Amino acid sequence: MNTRLTRTLASVTFGLAVLCGLAFLGTAASHMLDDGAVCVKTGFWANASFGPDGLPVGKGVEASSSTARLCQDSPSVGQRAADLGGELPWLLFGTLALLLFSRLLTGVLQQGPFTDTVARRLSALGWFVTVGTPLAGLAVGWSQSWLVGSMAPMVGSGPELSGTMELVLVGLAAVIMGKVMREGVRMREDIEATI
What angle do CA 140, 167, 164 make, to 5 degrees? Predict the structure, then answer.
């Protein structure tokens, strides 16, 4: 096994996790301290007309183009938090997934690839990706839905799923591989005990 490559990947992965974490904190701080408008896109009014007889929107909300981009000047704290909810869940998800992957690579470096520790860490990473992907997508979708509903009350808001869910399959594959590896480790230990 190429330990130099694994060591480099572990370091790079940890560095990316730190960068994602800093981006998470920076985005949260800058959005909460920003006093500018909050904007959101919605597909509710696809190809709708705009103007005095067009879309009914709340006071202080400007709507532009047929993509239904809504912007609220002087947004409330809830609207600013919902705007953050459109970005922060994926940053947090990415940060934690990279940290778990870095731990997995560190375990490979310390004990080798086919150990119980590596199998458990692979399963933990798989479960995190499997469960975290739809949760992050739900948090982002619902935040955006609430933000649209707060600017245009007639739309309403409710649970929505945002983003791609293909990562769930990757997570399930990692869980299965972790279980296969764990069984292989047990079989090897049984064989070594009988010899």
Answer: 45
